[in-house]
Batch of 3 targets.
Target 1
Amino acid sequence: MIRNQLLFCLILGCLTCISCGDKKEKDTQDFKIERKATESAKIDTAKEEQKPSERIDLNTLGVGPIKSVSLDPEIDSDLAAAGEKLYGQLCIACHKVGKRFIGPAPNGILKRRSPEWVMNMILAPEIMVKEDPLAKELLQEFNGSPMSNQGLTEDQARAILEYFRTLE
Amino acid sequence: MKTIHFNQIRISLVGMALMFLGCNPQGSGGSDGALSSSAAEKVYIAPGEQDEYYAFLSGGYSGNLTVYGLPSGRMFKEIPVFSQFPTSGYGYSEETQPMLNTSHGFVPWDDLHHPDISQTNGELDGRWIFANGNNTPRIARISLSTFETEEIIEIPNSAGNHSSAFITENTEYVVAGTRFSVPVPQRDMPINEYKGNFKGALTFISVDPEEGHMEIAFQVIMPGFNYDLARPGRGESHGWFFFSTYNTEEANTLMEVNSSQNDKDFIAAINWKKVEEYVAQGGGESVAVNYAHNLYDESTHSATSTMIKKVVTVDPTQIPGAVYLLPTPKSPHGCDVDPSGKYIIGAGKLSADVTVHSFTKMTEAITNEDFDGEAYGIPILNFDNVLAGVVKSGGLGPLHTEFDSQGNAYTTFFISSEVVKWELGSWEVVDRKPTFYSVGHLMIPGGNSRKPYGKYLVAMNKITKDRYLPTGPEMEHSAQIYDISGEKMELLYDFPTHGEPHYAAGCSADLLRDKSKKIYRLDENNHPFAITSPAEARVERDGKEVHIYMSTIRSHFTPDNIEGIKVGDRVYFHVTNHEQDFDVPHGIAMIGANTSEILVMPGQTKTIVWEAKQVGVWPFYCTDFCSALHQEMQGYIRVSPANSNVELSWSLGD
């Protein structure tokens, strides 16, 4: 009985495809297997637990070479420009400004993380995802996609941090 | 009855076990002393630990070089040299195809025989390793920081490039001697007019001390013998080079018989400093030839091939004191020089004995003009007056000799299948151990230098037979590691090699470990089709050629959807790996590609060509398991009919 139904569906499916023609093939979404919640569904479940990427933790320094960073109240625009250039070469494969991509967008990161944590994540991602509880959770939130160690110097990571300060 | 039987057997077994225990209180059989540690302990490198030595074994007909650790015998890498290698895309990628260009066109294979590590002051310096292509005469230079082939130079006027690639003690020259003599210059002539007309070219290739770049300095045009193996003089004999010869009969057919008629052939001694001087003063003749010089540039990640049309040849009889012949019995094969440079050892392969010439006596004989005639104007030195000694080995078929740092020599015997240890000076045999089976070359790390590391010896065999589980008619050749730190050699371990190893070179791990390159810096990438940011990823059409500027990082291609390709297009995937972390290559394979995949190292750019032949949507994917999301690292190319007007477009995640 079930098998017949399947067969019928398949035939129908084939017919549908054929009838689509060669211009634009129909976007078929006939099945949903544990599909992730859509935007509208998210509103309905407002109580959903806060994602690790949205959590605010300004005290954790993370694990890595950076123990303390002091930020001047004024943004150093030359340093930020240098950081933007590096970001454009080494980071945008995975992190787009203003949009979640492979990894999170950097916008407003310093409202959620300490500067030390951000620099440690850039400089020692392998250690962070093993030893920093939040980084560990972030790895899961972003599909297990590992953050690549791009071999930056501390000065280069500092420049990228300055660039992040310019991103609202 | 049956039950009783079983019980009886059981009792017998227990009894035997007790007997064994009783017989051998040390617990391991075969040990000849309670103090010596077991062979297993000596070769065991615990998980996570590293070997003490690198060994570079020639691959023979594989065309490549393999890298092993000693004493473990573990293979670390196969370095493609003369053969196309789909594992990395070497010889298939657009960047590396020029490496295999020759005057005969693209030659995707060779027979790699003799690796030799660069030296300074006669000691290994670990900068490069040179190796010869035997079939289509070529010399390659391989970087020992990237473990990649960086340069290949073809050798004109040569054939069967066998007495190669050996270097002088400051890497002034890498030497390539021809095994087969040929008409020089090549011309149409009857084969049976070989004698007196064919010539043997011994080629000296200068090596730039900074970059290692090779250039043919001169060719010494010798009589038409077969030049078999060669070694540099060192220490007091620095400035000379020694080549063994056979077929001084100059036979051209049924060589097995006809080239073994003379009781003695020669070791040719070339005073290359004299030749160098002669050429520097304008001596020699510039002759028309055609050969390829292929050079890989690490910054552009690309090779270029240049055809060269001239070479300087030298008639050695025109240079007083440049060339002499040392009579050496029974078709000598190996021609080895001891660490002091005092002794030149000729292994007559059809003999039981090993002949040792004295360099001091040789120079005296030259001064005294103690000659025994001449061959084509080249003086033949008096055999008895240059002889230092004869090793009465008791073995049969000596081939090659290496040395330790304690004044001992080790010679392989092919026919009697053994390594014989003997003492320099007394010429007395100290020890002998069997090999399994029919050993060819042997290698002691640094054994062809002033400073051997006399701890291990590797014997490389021609026959394997029962050493390993059978794998059909073809078996990988076996090698054996011996501990040579004591008076007696101790067989430690057996390991299979790849292809057919001829010679090998080895050095201390400390010489190479710290300078081994980990990544290529993206900001130093000067490949013309590199993109240093994924923002530059794009697809450009130039007639029927389509160039994809693509980047990779764990774990996606930018772009991963490409449309507007048409049947008949030639599609170039220029892939830049944006990783900057050690050991994170990405690969790319395209369905139906008539080439291979390419494996792109961090910071590197490589290009593979794919021809769009059929309408459809065709996938490509990453071949190297790069992250937990490696299986997701894929993309599609849409191929439309040739007359379609689908526009060129590309995207990632849009």
Target 2
Amino acid sequence: MSGFLADVEAFSGFYRGYARSVLLFFARRTLDPEAALDLTAETFAQAFASRMSFRGGTDAEAGAWLFVIARRQLAQYFEAGRVSRELLGRLGVEVPRADREELERIEALAGLGAIRVALREQLERLDVGQRQALWLRVVDGQPYTVVAARLGISEQAARARVSRALRGLAEPLAAMATSVEEER
Amino acid sequence: MSDEFRVLDELERRLIAGCYHDGQPAQHAVRRPRVRRRYSWAAVSAAGIAVPGMLAAIVVIASGGVTPSAARALADAARASRASATPILASGEYWYTRTIFSTITPFPLPPRVIRPGTNPAPTLIAVNLRQSVETWIGRDGTIRQRQTTLSERFADAAARRRWLASGEPLPHFGSSDSVSSGDGWFPPQYGGGGGDVGDGLFSYRQLLTLPASTRALRSRIERAQAAYTHRQQHGLPVKVQPGTAVGGIQLIGRPSLRYARSFEDLNTITMLLSTPLPAEVRAAIYRVAATLPGVRYDGHAKDALGRAGIAVAIGTRAHGMQMIFNPTTGALLQTSMLVSGSIRGVKLGPLTQTIAAQGIVRSLNSLPRGVRPIGRLLPSPLTVAISPRAGTPTSTFYLTMQGAHTSLRPVPFPPIAEVNGPTAPGCDAYLIPPPIVNLTHAVTIHSLGHVSYRYKLQPSAIDRTAWCPGRYQLQIVGNNPTSIYFQVR
């Protein structure tokens, strides 16, 4: 597959083939549709920037390669507590914001309701601060400004606390996400 | 997709606008800051290649001739080197080097509004950047690399005004810290940046036994360069390919082969001079430098830290490479990529790499006496070990990750890992790109204030029933990446 993503049509076909799956993949593992959208955007930007390193020959290999990048993005998100926008910044791409209706549709398609219910049982594994932050953000669905205000910390600290909590639960979350993906 | 997510449609439009200009892939998007030294020069004339340095810049090569004064200065440095002490690394010790990188680099300013169908190439803003790169290299080639941003300032008031007017957060170059366990080669001083970071021209033992005669040493270096290039092309798949996602210095123009060879050799020489060499070999390396066609004497010069030295260079003062050394000790002080020109209105400046400190230390987390830490010297990143180091196609390898209690998570969290491996019939498709490896937690070990987790690594981890013969690199992915090598016979 030499000349991978060499033109707009190729990129468009690749994007349309995988964007929805990647978005839902991230949504199920971050429980945050907005973060999932940012991660999806950065993943495709990374794929474009490193397209020369792709040496597979089939669509399936291209998809597997894309999800390698996606998993790396997810690991960095859990590690850093924020979405890297390195490549998006270099490309000059601003991620569009989804309206409330679309965010709800992402949540529904990702099956986040079921995952959240199951997640409650896992919260005891977290320390108090992380548990509170995760509950407010993920279970109560509060925006980060509210999470920060309720916990008396900065918004940035609230984001970091939530992502660290998610990292602590990454294993059960991945299992839940996989089970949801298999059902659908 | 339109029926479901308008936001994904809009994202597609914006990505296409950013990634493609006039239907062609945008080139600016693939250059990113990297720290990587390479020896290979083979691809220079083809597309450009990473050479010492971490920052995107462009060097245009011109032609040059041999000057007697350069030869004299280098001969003096050879004599001074012969009288210097030979640093000998004992087992468990590391060669520490602190290098200060300094340059003007273009940083993209994202457009505030992107209209569908437009071509929003970002405006570039000039930033003065200083970073330190500290390396700890062990006899077995284990390398820790810690990169710290010392300062990042707009190059001028206009750049600052333009950026602030955009409302974007201030540009930030960040820091990193990683460890790669050794595989025998004594790696380049500035490792990392993807690919086979643990590879090098020589092992530590070979460095100690290099010939001290000029002709024999030059021949030995050339053979090592050829072997290194062969390994890079036929060994581990290298994620960063020449001319694509490399940062470093991008060479453009059509240098003569003779001149390009000198440039490559000077590059290798500066790299070797930064390693712990026997005094006689150090002296011979300066004598080899004196034989390079195109080496020019630039006279007395001061490095970025204000230390006085002698400068020699390849190319012109506007386009080339310069090294400054201490004539009384033979110590390499600074290497500069001399740059001119501009990229979309941003004037480029030289990229200097100044060796600020060097010495032998007892651990991956200590500094030579009298060297002050930059920022808070955190515990070293996780260290990993693999057993056995060499196995058969059906071997089970055991990966042990160890760190201080505080640096490991409280549960044996399965690390996210990737494998690079040999290319061979039936072995290449799945390794490029590297697959995510499924590591199985085997046991947790508590010992002397440290906790270790051991994981099983079998061919099934990469969906294979057997390993292909060759050299493998396992990378633990994360902010502080860690890698290790193993062999399959």
Target 3
Amino acid sequence: MWFDRINWPDIGTALSQTLSMVSVSLVLTVLIGLPLGILLFVTGKGQPFARPLGYGVLSFVLNIIRSVPFIILLIVLMPVTVLITGTSLGIRGVIFPLVVGTSPFFARLVETALREVDRGVIEASLAMGASPVQTIFRAVLPEALPGLIAAVTVTAIVLVDYTAMSGAIGGGGLGDLAIRYGYHRFQTEIMLVCVVVLILLVQLIQASGNSLVSHFSRR
Amino acid sequence: MIRLQAITKSFAPKRGAPPVLHGIDLSVGKGEIFGIIGASGAGKSTLVRLINLLERPTSGEVFIDDQRITDAKGAELHELRRSIGMVFQHFNLLSGRTVAGNVAWPLELAGRLTRAEIAAKVTALLARVGLADHAQKYPRQLSGGQKQRVGIARALANDPKVLLCDEATSALDPQTTGQVLDLLQEINLELGVTIVMITHEMDVIRRACDRVAVLEKGRVVEEGPVAAVFLHPSHPVTRALVREAEGDGPLETGGIIGQHLRLTFTGEGAHKPVLGGIARDYGVDFAILGGRVGHIRRNPYAQFSISLTGGNGLGAVAALQAAGVAVEVIGGAAAASLPTGIATRPERHLHVV
């Protein structure tokens, strides 16, 4: 291995592409997945707005998306991606499938985090005259905050994983670089560096997620 | 104040699930501390939740201050619930908010007071429940008794007319239970808040309540002033609950000679030297078969089961009654030889207290 053959600026560019894909998709995933997760929670069995039919339909659709392997979802969604963003390539082309791929996953995590909230707290809130909407936004969500932060952390890591995969269809980023140079051009050292950078990135995300969770959990 | 009328409750009436409550008729007077006692599964949690409509009756009506509230919805329902505080067995505090934040919560939800007014009210409420020094702590830093004090302060935040206590002391140790019951009585006395308390412990009823209803399999099997129900329980379930509180089994008097009587002394009479004097005057002898002494709320009572032998038994009984002692025949010699006006079990003896 010759580390002097590594083009560090390339790695830097790829890292910044990965970071922007992860951060933009993460924000959009939270914006879409959080309401979906709340919807799953409130329409679920035994909840204030229990709607078995609505819950069933939503749950079914989300499960279908979650069943499709991400690499296949990338390809299947290409025509839609082109319609929405004008291209299926680069960072712009990859954010839409990333958000579609992770939102259902995040929504499930949100649903689980909200279900973890003590039912007694919900009952207390209703008993003191809170409306169901107040109960969800002023009791359930704040109480679930540590769980929600953990869900965002896990989702961010899944996004790092998915951005690497999207490299295969021209998405850019560290995954793309690793495959193009490390695999197709047999520059194993570039693959190695990319993997090390990804490992560090994931560790960093997990560590900061953990410290936020412990800061906000007062149970 | 609170009136439940012909209430039945079934959780899945369409699927033919057996009702949890059958034909409950209860009324709770203003300023009263009303206890509802029963074993777990008797339906008492469901019953107390009908009062703030956390549960809706399958049939029957709920009245508060003579207003029918059975179908209250939306804003009306939220307003109603603000006038009824609730305290829970497991406190149900928000773990992410401080003690002060928890007490402020119902005030924030109501949205009538400014931030400064809320802060002032929270300070006053915390002082009332003795937690002024803990305002900035989080619930997990508190003991069980302190958590329940936060729960009580929170329940009082919107100046409720009624306080519902759902097994409020069941998760607490005996000493803390006493302190929380004292606090509730103080609140009842000073603020005139009507309190409905559910519990499975007769001790809680004896120490804190004015009246009690005994619930068994969704029916009220006995109801009345605590002294009457506690000292002269008529239903087997009530007797079992009383015995449990006394830590004693049923009295076995099979082989013991003489007339078996139960004497109940209440109020001032509980401390008078009546028994020895009457034994001398009427030449009777007595053996004590069982007994208990204590207080019902602040009133002393003493209750003895005795066997009476020799001398002028009838005279002695009459003298006991004249001295204000409630006398019941519980066995032994034939009850027919006794003067009328002495109750025999299981009839309820009513002239107590």
